[in-house]
Design a protein that fits this description.
Helix content is about 70%, strand content about 5%. It is mostly helical. It has one domain. The strands form two sheets. It has a two-stranded antiparallel ribbon. A two-stranded antiparallel ribbon has the order 3-4. Helix 3 crosses helix 8 and helix 4 packs across helix 8. The longest helix has 28 residues. The two termini are about 30 Å apart. InterPro entries: TM_pro_TauE-like (IPR002781), TSUP/Inactive_protease-like (IPR051598). Belongs to the 4-toluene sulfonate uptake permease (TSUP) (TC 2.A.102) family. It is a multi-pass membrane protein. Keywords: Cell membrane, Membrane, Transmembrane, Transmembrane helix.
């Protein structure tokens, strides 16, 4: 089923795009991440220009997050107060990211910037995930690992920030500047790369803010939902790089995939899931690195006229 994408100026197989959206949805249901960190590079591999891939991927990440937020909300797994602070930071970050996007686009380097960011991000995240998952599966000392239960605490930098608010559902008494800055960083990345930001939010919420694990995934999805909505609107108004047909096909797959992912998560050990995801992430990073090192026969870029 071929579909013509007017913004990308190309024809694609609609079933392939739906399948890519389904992969994003599965990741959202499994790990509480938006999944855009894999959708965008996969679209690029398929031939979609990086600017269109990044802008359109953020649209379908929104759909993949909706059902997840509702599911976690029913079991009181969302800290709306802390999530609201990160959303405010994320919206400002999206605006700043739009300025950076237009700048790199104006000098004809936005495609290269997106690819480099993905190589650095996926390589780092994949390596850390693989190391953590492997150590969980094969701990050097199983008895010591079983006894080891690190106490949840804030990062020293968070403790040093002025002002303090109580976030009761997360069990925190910290400065709102910490989640605000975290949201700002995620907003910039969402705008530039079309990612949801859950791969940064979740570990940062756990190990920097010291949040309760019971609300981390739901709060991450809450932030992703609203920041990706803002990002899509900004892209539509400034870069005009959002392809509605591409986003629609991705959305169909992502909504279905989110339900599948939530079912798989209940049956498979989480450490094996993390290891499998780490391997996929590293493979994508290597493929994107090779794409940067080898010059294609035809060089093109999407620029604003």
């Amino acid at each position: 089923m071929d579909v013509y994408l007017p913004i990308a100026n190309m024809s694609v197989n609609g079933l392939v795009i739906v399948a890519l959206g389904g992969l994003t949805g599965i990741l959202s249901g499994l790990f509480g991440v938006g999944g855009g960190f894999l959708t965008t590079p996969l679209l690029i591999f398929y031939g979609v220009p990086p600017t269109v891939a990044a802008a359109s991927a953020s649209t379908q990440v929104t759909g993949a997050s909706v059902s997840g937020v509702f599911a976690h909300s029913k079991r009181k797994g969302v800290d709306y107060k802390l999530g609201g602070v990160t959303v405010v930071g994320g919206i400002f970050g999206a605006g700043l990211g739009a300025v950076l996007f237009r700048f790199f686009e104006s000098i004809g380097q936005i495609d290269v910037v997106i690819n480099i960011l993905y190589v650095l991000m996926l390589g780092t995240i994949g390596s850390l995930m693989a190391k953590e998952a492997w150590e969980t599966i094969n701990p050097p000392d199983k008895e010591a690992a079983a006894k080891k239960a690190p106490k949840r605490r804030h990062h020293p930098l968070v403790t040093a920030l002025p002002l303090r608010w109580r976030f009761y559902r997360s069990g925190l008494y910290i400065s709102p500047l910490a989640p605000l800055i975290l949201g700002l960083i995620v907003g910039i990345l969402t705008m530039l790369m079309g990612v949801g930001g859950g791969f940064i939010l979740i570990p940062a919420m756990l190990y920097i803010l010291g949040m309760s694990a019971s609300v981390v995934v739901g709060t991450s999805l809450f932030n992703i939902l609203f920041v990706t909505i803002a990002t899509t609107m900004i892209h539509a108004l400034t870069t005009q790089a959002v392809d509605i047909l591409l986003a629609a096909f991705l959305l169909i797959g992502s909504v279905t995939g989110a339900q599948v992912g939530s079912q798989i998560a209940q049956k498979v050990k989480p450490e094996w899931l993390r290891l499998a995801l780490a391997v996929v992430v590293l493979m994508v990073a290597i493929r994107m690195l090779l794409g940067l090192l080898y010059q294609p026969d035809e060089i093109f870029s999407v620029t604003q006229l």
